[in-house]
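Raw record, unedited: L,D-transpeptidase
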Amino acid sequence: MKLVRLALLAAFTVGLAACQYARTPDPVLSERDAQFMAMIPTAKEDPMFARYMVDNPTGEPPGVVVVETRQHQLYYTLPDGKAMRYGVALGSEAFGWTGEAVIDHKAEWPDWNPPADMVARWPQVKKTAGGWTNPLGARAMYLFQDGKDTLYRIHGTNEPEKIGQSVSSGCIRMRNIDVIDLYSRVQDGTKVIVR
């Protein structure tokens, strides 16, 4: 039994050594970004949900966003078999969404217009102008299917402590510094797969 445990431990250690993780520097912030970001609460970052460049585990070609809902990870695939990995907060079970879409357009510090079904559930939510108090955070990428708005977004958050949890009404939330990084990498028309 002891030999089996040692063999399993050795296999696990070799498996971890084969994984290539590299922390990446934060993106350079504009003056506006820096001002707003200074006002947003911070949360202790869980290394499991930190931004890393990793070996691409998705099987997708470069230039695709893949969200692995079970792991609360978003990958943006890069050339040479690499990917950027970001921790995310996702929809609670009742509001989870999977499928394929494209990024139709992007916005910096966007206004938030809560959908009618959200207002029906929570009458206290109101339209909010873009800025540091806005639930969409620093950036938003609007997901469309067949030319129609899905009402789902990849966006920042003013609740960074919830990264790694299933708490949203379906959107894919990222730490603001991470959504700024992803925003700078993707283009309109980028394919998004949510598994």
